[in-house]
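=== How it folds ===
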Amino acid sequence: MDNSDDTLIECSRHGTGSSAIVCQHLLQEKNRSLVFIENSSIPGDRQAWCGDCEALFLQEKELTETFRQFNNFAVVCGECYDEIKARHAKQDAD
């Protein structure tokens, strides 16, 4: 896999890797699962936010300052993104 177009980030846990973006809620919430919504269908453009951010985005209809402050995007490495996605992705009922 060629990551030459990725923006690299240095992660204290995973070392140097590709970057991804998540909302503060996905990053901070560890005790419960939130809805995980990926915001890009472009491979390698990894962006996600939670259900509350999605609801505000739909209400605001664009990336307003109110939305940006609520979302408070954080840059994480790709491996952290995968861990966050696994923790917060909606689980199918058994």
User: Anything to note?
Assistant: Residues 8-88 form one domain.
